[in-house]
Amino acid sequence: MRDKILQLLESSNKALSLMEIDSLLDIKTVEDTKELSTILRELEDDFQIYCSNKGRYMLLSKSNLRKGIFKMNKKGYGFVDIYGEDEDVFVGPTNINKALNNDIVIVEIISKSGLKREGRIYKILERNLSTIVGEIYFEKDKCFLIPDDKKIEIQIEIEKDKTKGAVDGHKVVVKILKNISRNRYKGEVIRIIGHKNDPGVDILSIVCKYEINDTFSDEVIKELDNIPESVSEIDKKGRRDLTNEMIFTIDGDDTKDIDDAISIDLLPNGNYKLGVHIADVSYYVKESSALDKEAMDRGTSIYLVDRVIPMLPHKLSNGICSLNPGVERLAISCVMEVDENGKTIDYEIFESVIKSKIQMTYKKANLVIEKDEVPDGYDEFVDSLKLMDKLSKIIRRAKNNRGYIDFAVDESKILVDDNCHPIDVVLRERGRGENIIEDFMIQANECVATHIFYMDLPFIYRVHEYPKEEKIREFVSFLNTLGYKMNGNLKDISPKSIQRLVKSLIDKKEFKILSSLLLRNMQKAIYSPQNLGHYGLASKCYTHFTSPIRRYPDTTVHRLLRTYLFNGDISSNTLSHWSEKLVFIADNSSFKERESIECERDVESMKMAEYMEDHIGEEYKGVISSVTNFGVFIQLDNLIEGLSHVNDMKDYFIYDELTQTLTGEKTKIRYTLGDEVLVRVKSASRDAKTIDFEIIKKM
Question: Which residues of the chain have a pLDDT value below 70?
């Protein structure tokens, strides 16, 4: 009867009463009517159906209620990812109803405009509280935890024999044992992170919050005994010897895990011979080994303010796998012939042995390329660098011609002292040296992906799907409210079309903000066993091949190249094995990537707030980056962002959602996206990861 009820409600175009359901199911006995009533209550309790105040039943999906996972934003609002639906539901700060990040909830949709839906949390179905990070304190012989996440409004009690010896002020990880009452829980300390005032404990606490491993198991450490510290003659057997080639690396000043090296030659026919040589991680990390399982579980290395949590132990990531200068290293090389139009017309993919001639830095490479200055030790590489710069420009022009979208979004860098205290926040510099590496890596990634795609073999791709047409329409409509008239066919959402849209905004004062907003309207890039193309790169076929030290999908790509190309194994058993396994690897890698990005952002938010704690009362110029009904967010030149709350504004402000503006009732002062303002730092909190600004005047 359960399935019949659901089928009936699915096919009905209106909500049905108990008697109507009884009649339509042709129920004839009292016992069956009682059973119907019982099943309806069970379905309602399971939130598969909804009963209105008038006693009429409908499927949950046909009501204003939806079931999903709540995702909290650092700005105080959140979104509910709805099960079985592509579009999420926005939940404002006043409608969260004590829901916590990752709670399974029922959300009621209270307004809808196009694809944008706003809701309120109707019911919390399940708390996702397995472990909580916080600070221990004792009170009257009882032990309690103050959660780091201030939105977790629960009390956690810990028995004295379950504290692991923690004392007042210790940051700990607590495992939830049981629920005592609605908001009271029993817990057990499973890890002492350190004292809250110890350097680096604040960052490690965030790492623990995301349940990210920052140490390696004994089993993994034991396997390291079998990892050599140098390349042997046996390792080099069957590989092409490129140790005498002009191969080198270009990286950041503090890079220690070097994945990629490059080489270049000008061919007699005028084409370029571009070599991209990538560390052969999969040679050392064997499938299903403890090292491999740990790397797959981590998915990626995580780069935080003062440390790296590596996917692989340092013996591999900084040692035998890192393409350090002056030592032999195993690599997988993709050597391409690129013509004057930036097209790869021929290529080889093979196992190699290389010896990097120098570990260049972007800063010094850019001196050669951009200013014609030659740092010490760079003399013999000047011609190669300039030839690489020339080819990079050709490749970049070809990418632009096909629709490559450059959102020109800046990144910040937090500088810290020896105690991990932030001393400055600056924009990351990006020069032509950075472009060279980006362009060459994209060229190699496309080459490898295309080769395996046309072999029609199981593979893992980096995919970026087309945006939703409705989202682009809404963005263009919003531009119109700002007074910018956008011409063109709104049904055309090709990369070329969005590229033109971005270029049309470059001269606007709000460009940086609008570009970021448009980027947020794009789909998220993920990993997939299906080739769906890469929209942002305007690439028909793309993968991640160039960073196997820090990304597990790249390690997998190397393993597949070895299996298919170097070992020639395309047996039915092998193809079946990878067809099944790649589904999990793609999903897990996409999830771990999102998790690492959230962790990195949390750390950056905390350190930016800590930096501003030292600058209370100081004045800065900024730009309004977001407008809400509770205030405006203001972004400084170095990307530090803070809130100016309506309660701190000297007027009553009216919010207009359509135009994204706040207007003073008496003063008629109007704040909108992109407005330049002068602000004073009112307060900041490292613990809460918040910064509050007071607007002094509109510029």
Answer: 74-75, 114-115, 182, 487-490
Nearest partner of 536 among 550, 555, 521, judged by Cα: 521
Instruction: Give the CA count within 13 Å in the CB-facing half-sphere of 22.
Output: 15
Q: How many whole angstroms separate alpha carbon 459 and alpha carbon 173?
A: 39
Residue 335, helix vs strand vs coil: strand
Q: Are 107 and 65 in contact (CB under 8 A)?
A: yes
3-state SS class at 633: strand
3-state helix, strand, coil in the chain (%, to 5): 35, 30, 35
pLDDT for 146 equals: 93
Cα 178 to Cα 196: distance, rounded to the nearest angstrom: 26
CA-based nearest residue to 91, from 74, 66, 104, 72: 72
Q: What is the pLDDT of residue 657?
A: 83
**DSSP codes, 68-83:** EEEEE-TTS-EEEEET
Q: What is the DSSP letter of 524?
A: P
Beta strand 661-664 pairing with 653-656: antiparallel
Q: Which two structure tokens, joined as six digits, stand for 490?
A: 């709104």
- Other C-beta atoms closer than 10 Å to the C-beta of 513 total 19
How far is 385 from 118, CA to CA, in rounded Å?
52
The Cα 641–Cα 639 span in angstroms is 6
Query: Residue 494 — left, alpha, or beta (φ > 0 → left; ψ -120 to 50 → alpha)?
Result: beta
Place of tokens 């571009």: 274
Check residue 115 and give its pLDDT. Answer: 61
Residue 448 is predicted with a pLDDT of 98
pLDDT of residue 473: 86
As given in the structure block, the two tokens for residue 347 are 């290529």
- For residue 140, how many other CB atoms are within 10 A of its CB? 4
Q: Quick one: pLDDT at residue 76?
A: 72
Tell me the Ramachandran region of residue 41: left when phi exceeds 0, alpha when psi lies from -120 to 50, beta otherwise. Answer: alpha
| Whole-number pLDDT of residue 490 | 67
CB 448 within 8 A of CB 349: yes
Rg of the chain over all Cα atoms, to the nearest angstrom? 29
End-to-end alpha-carbon separation of the chain, Å?
67
Q: Which residues contact 75 (CB under 8 A, 6 or more apart)?
A: 626, 628, 633, 643
Residue with tokens 């080994």: 289
Please give the full DSSP string across 595-617, using - where no structure is assigned: HHHHHHHHHHHHHHHHHHHTTTT
What is the per-residue pLDDT for 525? 96
pTM over 0.85: yes
Q: Residue 489: what pLDDT?
A: 66
